Amino acid sequence: MRSLKFAVITAAIVSCGAAIAWAATPEETVAQREDAMKTYGASVKTLTGFVRDNQGSIDDVKAATAKMAGVSAELLSLFPEGTAVGVGKSAAKPEIWANWADFQTKVKANHDAIVALDAAAQSGDAAKVKAAFPAVGQSCGACHETYRVKKS
């Protein structure tokens, strides 16, 4: 019994050490964040084509919104302190961390809008998708307007 306890405790300690060893650097986190935003961008492009120009299928929309929902669920974890402008290709303003509660609120609003859009897409109802899509754009814009350096 003692050997089993020792083995479990040792495994836990080793696992914690491995997790610490695999922690991303600020530059790696910024790159992950950029990849997440590229996923958003590609999904929005698919959705815009569907909503505005009737391009693509509802299955394309379902795939796009599912990707966005997955990214939005983890978005806050991609904004640890120390990943502002000046780190890698970061466009994140330092105001994010100075106004963390507001940033969290905006990220949650974005996630909620995406979850609603995903539910509309998964229902297969194009009219529901078209009705839910503007809230996603508004929530993205609300965050970018305040917390992202404008592209030149």
TrEMBL record:
It comes from the Bacteria. Keywords: Electron transport, Heme, Iron, Metal-binding, Signal, Transport. GO terms for biological process: electron transport chain. Transmembrane segments: none annotated. InterPro entries: Cyt_c/b562, Cyt_c_II, Cyt_c_prime, Cyt_c_prime_subgr. Heme c binds at residues 140, 143-144. One of its GO terms (molecular function) is heme binding. Residues 1-23 form the signal peptide. GO terms for cellular component: periplasmic space. The keyword Heme applies. Binds 1 heme group per subunit. This is Cytochrome C556.
